[in-house]
Amino acid sequence: MLEALEPFGLGDFTSLITEIQLQNWGKTLVIQGLYDPHGQNLPFTLTLHQCYDIRWQPLSPDLNPALPDSEPADLIDLQLQTQGDRSTAIFYTDLFELTVGYDRLTCHTTPTSLSLISA
């Protein structure tokens, strides 16, 4: 269970990260995923706005996310932390760890959309 995704209705089952895109010269990070791939199969998008720090740590030297046939990453844990006026999201997967400093986080799912605004 991923408690950080519960406010979006995505915390009870497995989630996969299928794609990550940098937009607006790195100010916006868009993470595409699939919630409950063996059941509901619900696509979701997490968007981190006004990013000020992005750190990527591959867990395998063979990982090349630029390849079109790259496998999805199992989202093992997501931690959302706030300290003062700074927010940080830490994504732990089986393929990489991703740490992002951001101002606002939104989540969109199909068919419904939910949004959580962080300071």
Explain what the structure shows.
This protein has 119 residues and is mostly beta strands. It has one domain (3-116). It is built from no helices and nine strands. It has strands at 15-23, 28-35, 42-49, 53-58, 73-83, 86-93, 96-102, 104-109, 113-116. The chain has a nine-stranded antiparallel beta sheet, with no helix packed on it. A hairpin with a 2-residue loop joins strand 5 and strand 6 (86-93). The protein is globular and about 40 Å long. The two termini are 24 Å apart.
Descriptors:
globular; mainly beta; 9-stranded antiparallel β-sheet; 0% helix
Could you give a short description of this structure?
It contains no helices and nine strands. With 119 residues, the protein is an all-beta fold.
SSE blueprint and pairings:
Layout: E1 15-23, E2 28-35, E3 42-49, E4 53-58, E5 73-83, E6 86-93, E7 96-102, E8 104-109, E9 113-116
Strand content: over 45%
Structural class, from secondary structure content?
Answer: mainly beta
Cα separation of the termini:
24 Å
Mean pLDDT: 85
**Radius of gyration, rounded?**
14 Å
Order of helices and strands: EEEEEEEEE
Query: Sheet bearing the most strands, described?
Result: 9 strands, antiparallel
